[in-house]
Amino acid sequence: MTGDTTAGDTTAGDTTAGDATAGDATAVDTLIDHRQVRRAIEHYYEQGFTDGLPVVPPTESYLAEFLAQVDRSPDEVVATMPHLNRQCTVRVAAINSIMAGCLPEYFPVVVAILDALRVDVGARGATRFSSGLWQSTTGTVPITVVNGPVRLRLGFNCQGNIFGPGFRPNATIGRTLRLIALNALGLKPHVLDQSTQGTPAKYTCCVAENEEESPWEPLSVEAGYGPDASTVSFMMMRSTMHIEARSATRPEHLLNDVANSVGRTGVLYSEKTACLVVVSPEHAQLLASQGWGKNDVKEYLAANAQCTREALERAGKTGISRDMHWLVPSDHPDALAGEEPHFELRGGTEVHHVLSSPDDVVVIVAGAANAGVSTVVELMGGSSAPSGRGGGRVPAMSEILLRGASA
Questions:
Q1: Which of 112, 204, 267, 367 could pair with 280 as two cysteines, CB 3.0-4.6 Å apart?
Q2: Contact status, residue 44 vs residue 1, Cβ threshold 8 Å
Q3: Cβ atoms 328, 334 nearer than 8 A
Q4: Which residues pair with 88 in a beta bridge?
Q5: What is residue 13's DSSP assignment?
Q6: What are phi and psi of 281, to 5 degrees?
Q7: What does pTM read for this prediction?
């Protein structure tokens, strides 16, 4: 094992062990000593450079293949955490991409994600990296959405098992972000990662929109990019909730189920919230067949995702905390005197609207049309970052630039 073994920047020398012929005298195979590979893998475990799963030991020659995929200096800083005095360069990002199991051609997607991450601004005007959100006790994690021709070119899963395993681009690109967080930024569990319980999405969460089966324009076009552009969007999530609406025949049936999940008392960590709705193709077709577009879905959810005063009282969430504006018991020591969430009278019942506006809802189409299942992804606050092309509030987004071909 050779090379610098500092966290976030470690490469091994090439592990070829000569060559030999096997079967065909004209074929030359490169043999790798399995003991050397195992020693390298175990070394990374010992150094704490993994997420608990084995990593691919990077070599200088393989690293060069990754760096050749982007027109960026290896020393360019692409992610910083000022409050921790830590940063990630293009070279370090490439090393962690190798470790995660990426192919070289995936690396432009990783760089685009980091570009989007730097402009992802939360409600308080701080970027997600500078706000400490990645260290949150709530277990907040990144979720990325890929759009455009790059989905098909690189083999992203857009259909069945969208949040599950089995597809290399989704799994390894999402995993790269976690390894960067661990190795370059030092966000290790029990150390700087303060998550109380966490989520399986801390390993990886990268999805792609099923544009071929969607009746609506994709998220990238909604944000102002052209239909031939390949993009990646970045958001911070806490959890996912499946919406079982297999027999819905009216848009309101489906969307009332979604609104109920968005408005549950357990989601109200703050006075307002935000969500990503991952609509299955058959649900999207149901909505579109009756004249509903993405904006109609957003407006309906903003109007109907609500909690009654009685429900919030039972959950002890009718007060507002002084510093974070979380919903707390009205008699909590940190509660602002005389302050409470906004309620309005609706059908004789006092209700609190969870979503402040339709802008707090992001809608994409993904998954398979085989069971009438969609998903609500609970986001950590609304994103107000500009995409660089479109207007309004959209997820932080960046264009993926693949070398040698239009993406």
A1: 367
A2: no
A3: yes
A4: 79
A5: P
A6: -55, -40
A7: 0.89
